[in-house]
């Protein structure tokens, strides 16, 4: 018997309902926020609405406008907003005990056991889990420590286009200069090499080999310019970099290089994990076993903060306090993660994400046939990217912003990505229904055509 309600029962509505956006109540709250909140606030600058409540794949603002959510809190809400099955468990745990540091609780042990079961490749049944601070950045920090501790080396290797977080070690691996300016020096032993993007020929075997050769040189070339890395950090599908799916053989090539050089392969599944791509982890698409994977975002089940790293038990060599964090025992979030996994299993959402994601990409491919500005559609499952350029073939972030604006004005929330901000990123909850997908894609496709036409006039 399926746990919780069906995905059809989770939402406010099948289609959006909007009047004026932003409405008067949203404008009031946005003004109050601007007066007292940090200048670091980003999302309301692009989508100026104030939120009140959410269910499933729908969000309602303070003026009563209802939106379809193709954003899911940057991939946090894989089983939807306020999933009743998840909320029931987290509320019960909250009323029992919430803050447990790392004392054993059923919530903690049950979640670890479940993660060991669904872990990719050879990590299944042979892995341990460490919780630290409640964020993906902290999970990356823990992985840096683990790799250095196990190899005795200090160099770390990441990729151009990568995003791994904004704490000091994670920011050293993050490639975006905009995140780093004014905050150096960071870890001086970090190096970045090319990731096989569309422009480098993502489907071109030679491009894959060139990128792998750049990695190999950092390990084996006597004049490679950097200390031999302790590990390789990679997103199996780059998220902030533009939903970039690497060619076949890329992750296996990294695995081979790590093995040949006694280094660790750490795969960042913070955005791609827990069913987002139609598999439990995006790594599963490539049939590669990493040494460690980092998790956060959807791991909390209903938006509760939690970060973790799962790694092969052979690397569990640190002692008590090897990686810590005051909030490493967020028991309600642990229950939320376990219940989210159970809900995904019970409602066959991996298959649903695969099928529905293909539908989203097919609709975008149809638009691309008559819209030369849309040059690439890519992704796995409900992790979809659409890349746009201008008449000269240059990245067109302005067009993406215009599409986003048209979308939210018509009740659809989408976000951007890409090295130049010229990629639309679709990451709806896995509980999005087929009917909602059709309505949302009608809005999006119309927005693309109208914005592209407007831009050529």
Task: Please describe the topology of this protein.
Blueprint: H1 24-36, H2 43-46, E1 51-55, E2 58-61, E3 66-69, H3 72-75, H4 84-96, H5 106-118, E4 127-131, H6 136-151, E5 155-159, H7 168-173, H8 177-180, E6 190-193, H9 205-220, E7 229-234, H10 250-260, E8 264-268, E9 292-295, E10 308-312, H11 331-346, H12 349-368, E11 374-380, E12 383-388, H13 397-409, E13 412-413, E14 415-417, E15 423-426, H14 434-456
Parallel strand pairs: 3-13, 5-6, 5-7, 7-8, 8-9
Antiparallel strand pairs: 1-2, 2-3, 4-10, 9-10, 11-12, 12-15, 14-15
Structure characterization notes:
The chain is of the alpha/beta class and 457 residues long. The chain has 2 domains: 7-76 and 348-455, Aspartate Aminotransferase, domain 1, CATH 3.90.1150.10; 85-347, Aspartate Aminotransferase, domain 2. The protein has 14 helices and 15 strands. The protein has helices spanning 24-36, 43-46, 72-75, 84-96, 106-118, 136-151, 168-173, 177-180, 205-220, 250-260, 331-346, 349-368, 397-409, 434-456, and strands at residues 51-55, 58-61, 66-69, 127-131, 155-159, 190-193, 229-234, 264-268, 292-295, 308-312, 374-380, 383-388, 412-413, 415-417, 423-426. It has a 7-stranded mixed sheet, sandwiched between helices. Strands 1-2-3-13 form a 4-stranded mixed sheet. The protein has a 4-stranded antiparallel sheet with strand order 11-12-15-14, covered by helices on one side. Helix 5 packs across helix 11. It starts with 23 loop residues before the first helix and ends with a helix.
């Amino acid at each position: 018997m399926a746990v919780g309600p069906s995905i059809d029962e989770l939402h406010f509505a099948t289609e959006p309902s909007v009047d004026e956006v932003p409405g008067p109540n949203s404008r009031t709250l946005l003004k109050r926020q601007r007066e007292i909140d940090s200048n670091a606030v980003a999302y309301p600058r692009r989508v100026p609405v104030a939120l009140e409540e959410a269910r499933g794949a729908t969000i309602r603002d303070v003026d009563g406008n209802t939106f379809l959510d193709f954003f899911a809190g940057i991939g946090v809400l894989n089983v939807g907003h306020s999933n009743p099955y998840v909320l029931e468990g987290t509320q019960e745990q909250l009323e029992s005990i919430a803050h447990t540091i790392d004392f054993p609780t059923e919530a903690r042990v049950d979640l670890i056991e479940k993660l060991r079961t669904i872990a990719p490749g050879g990590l299944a049944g042979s892995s341990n889990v460490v919780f630290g601070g409640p964020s993906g950045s902290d999970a990356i920090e823990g992985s840096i420590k683990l790799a250095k501790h196990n190899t005795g080396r200090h160099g770390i290797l990441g990729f151009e286009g990568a995003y791994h977080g904004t704490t000091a070690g994670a920011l050293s691996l993050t490639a975006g200069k905009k995140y780093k300016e004014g905050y150096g020096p960071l870890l001086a032993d970090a190096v970045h090499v090319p990731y096989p993007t569309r422009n480098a020929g993502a489907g071109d075997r030679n491009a894959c080999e060139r990128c792998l050769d750049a990695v190999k040189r950092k390990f084996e070339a006597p004049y490679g310019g950097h200390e031999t890395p302790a590990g390789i950090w990679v997103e199996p599908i780059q998220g902030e970099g533009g939903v970039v799916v690497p060619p076949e053989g890329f992750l296996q090539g990294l695995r081979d290089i790590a093995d040949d050089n006694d280094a660790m392969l750490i795969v960042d599944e913070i955005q791609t994990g827990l069913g987002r791509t139609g598999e439990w982890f995006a790594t599963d698409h490539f049939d590669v076993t990493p040494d460690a994977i980092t998790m956060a975002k959807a791991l909390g089940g209903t938006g509760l903060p939690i970060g973790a790293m799962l790694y092969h038990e052979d690397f569990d060599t640190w002692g008590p306090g090897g990686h810590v964090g005051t909030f490493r025992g967020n028991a309600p979030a642990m229950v939320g993660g376990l219940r989210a996994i159970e809900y995904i299993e019970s409602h066959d959402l991996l298959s649903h994400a695969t099928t529905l994601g293909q539908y989203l990409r097919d609709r975008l491919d149809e638009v691309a046939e008559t819209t030369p500005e849309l040059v690439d559609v890519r992704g796995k499952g409900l992790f979809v990217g659409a890349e746009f350029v201008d008449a000269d073939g240059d990245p067109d972030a302005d067009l993406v912003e215009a599409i986003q604006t048209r979308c939210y004005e018509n009740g659809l929330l989408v976000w951007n990505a890409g090295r130049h901000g010229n990629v639309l990123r679709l990451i709806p909850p896995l509980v999005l229904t087929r009917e909602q997908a059709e309505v949302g894609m009608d809005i999006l496709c119309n927005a693309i055509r109208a914005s592209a036409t407007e831009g050529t006039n």
